[in-house]
Recover the amino acids of this structure.
C-alpha cells in the first residue's frame, strides 16, 4: 500500500512526512520545490487490537501492518504544462495507490502561501485541475494508438478504447475519473495508464496548534467539500507532529496529554488511509509472532491466505477463524475451541475486519 503526500508548496507536506516517518532530515527551507526527488518512508499502522491480542497470546514479535508514504514535491498551477518541474512530479503521483492531499488550514505570516492568501478550497481545486489536465493529455495521447491496435481485432484493445472514451467524457467535463464505476477488467485498464484522478483521495487539513480537532472555518470548508465528493478528512498539526517526533516516548505522551490528544497523527491518518484505499486487516497469532495482514475489503479466505504466501492460496483447504472478543472472553484458543467459537471456513468465506486466523493448505 503506497500513498503519495501531495499539495501546493509550503502547506506543510514535508514537515508532516518527516514527522510521520520520524525523519531526522533537516527542516526544508521556506520556498517552493525544496523536495526534488520524492522521499519515501515505511510507517507502521497503529492498531490497538494488536495490544489486545498480545495480552493473551504473548509472542516473540509483534508485526503491525505498514503504510508506504511518498513525499512528492509541491505542485503549482500549470504543473500539467511543466510549470514548477510539474511533469516530473506528476509522474511520481502516477505510481501511488492513493493521494493524501495536505491542505493548508493555518495562518502564519512567516510562511508564504504560493497563492497569496490561505484558501483551502482554491488549493484543492488547483491540484484537482492539474491532475485532470494531466489525465486529459494521457487519454488524448493514448487513444489513437489503442484505436489502431483495436482495428486489428485485438479484444483487449477494443475494451481499452471503450474505457478511454468513457474516461475522456468525464475528464472533459472536469469530473475526476474516480466518480466512475468499472468492472474488474475495466479497472485493470484504468490502472494500467496511471490515471491520477482515478485514485482515491484523503484530505489532510494542516491546522494551527489552537485548532487540533479541526473545528475552525478553514477545516469546515474542507469537510464540506470532502463530504460532497465522498472523501475523508483528517486534521493534523504538522508543527506539533514535528515537535513530537523529536521527543522520547515519555515526553511525547506528556505533550500529547497536555494538548488533549490520546495519540499522534499517524494513528488516525493511517486508519483513514486504510479506509480510503478500501483495505482492512486480519491477524495471525502464535508464540512466534502476532501479525496484522492487509487485505482489500471483500477478500475471500484463500485470497487472504495468499497475502502470506502464494502457496497458501493455491493449496488452500480451509481456515480456522475466531474473533478477538472471543479471545478476550475465553483467554486462549483451547477454550475458544471447547466453547465452539472456533469457526471452520471454506473457500467462499469473505474475510471480516479483525478476524484471527489459522490457514490449512496443501501444495
Amino acid at each position: 500500500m503506497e500513498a503519495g503526500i501531495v499539495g501546493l508548496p509550503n502547506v506543510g507536506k514535508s514537515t508532516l512526512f518527516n514527522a510521520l516517518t520520524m525523519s531526522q532530515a533537516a527542516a526544508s527551507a521556506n520556498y517552493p520545490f525544496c523536495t526534488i526527488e520524492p522521499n519515501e518512508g515505511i510507517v507502521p499502522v497503529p492498531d490497538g487490537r494488536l495490544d489486545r491480542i498480545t495480552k493473551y497470546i504473548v509472542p516473540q514479535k509483534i508485526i503491525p501492518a505498514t503504510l508506504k508514504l511518498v513525499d512528492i514535491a509541491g505542485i503549482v498551477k500549470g504543473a500539467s504544462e511543466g510549470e514548477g518541474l510539474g511533469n516530473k512530479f506528476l509522474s511520481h503521483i502516477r505510481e501511488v495507490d492513493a493521494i493524501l492531499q495536505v491542505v493548508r488550514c493555518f495562518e502564519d505570516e512567516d510562511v508564504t502561501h504560493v497563492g497569496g492568501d490561505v484558501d483551502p478550497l482554491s488549493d484543492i481545486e488547483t491540484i484537482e485541475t492539474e491532475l485532470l489536465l494531466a489525465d486529459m493529455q494521457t487519454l488524448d495521447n493514448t487513444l489513437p494508438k489503442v484505436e489502431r491496435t483495436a482495428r486489428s481485432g485485438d479484444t483487449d484493445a477494443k475494451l481499452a478504447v471503450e474505457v478511454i472514451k468513457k474516461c475522456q467524457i468525464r475528464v472533459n467535463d472536469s469530473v475526476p475519473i474516480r466518480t466512475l464505476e468499472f468492472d474488474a477488467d475495466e479497472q485493470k485498464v484504468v490502472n494500467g495508464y496511471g490515471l491520477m484522478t482515478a485514485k482515491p483521495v484523503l484530505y489532510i487539513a494542516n491546522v494551527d496548534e489552537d485548532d487540533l480537532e479541526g473545528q475552525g472555518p478553514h477545516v469546515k470548508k474542507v469537510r464540506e467539500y470532502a463530504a460532497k465528493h465522498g472523501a475523508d478528512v483528517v486534521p493534523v498539526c504538522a508543527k506539533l507532529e514535528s515537535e513530537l517526533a523529536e521527543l522520547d516516548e515519555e515526553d511525547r505522551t506528556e505533550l500529547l496529554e497536555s494538548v488533549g490528544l490520546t495519540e499522534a497523527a499517524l494513528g488516525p491518518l493511517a486508519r483513514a488511509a486504510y479506509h480510503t484505499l478500501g483495505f482492512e486487516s486480519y491477524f495471525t497469532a502464535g508464540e512466534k509472532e502476532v501479525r496484522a495482514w492487509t487485505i482489500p475489503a471483500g477478500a475471500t479466505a484463500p485470497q487472504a491466505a495468499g497475502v502470506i504466501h502464494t502457496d497458501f492460496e493455491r493449496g488452500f483447504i480451509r481456515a480456522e477463524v475466531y474473533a478477538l472478543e472471543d479471545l478476550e472472553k475465553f483467554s486462549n484458543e483451547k477454550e475458544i475451541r471447547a466453547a465452539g467459537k472456533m469457526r471452520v471456513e471454506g473457500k467462499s468465506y469473505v474475510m471480516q475486519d479483525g478476524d484471527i486466523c489459522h490457514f490449512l493448505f496443501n501444495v
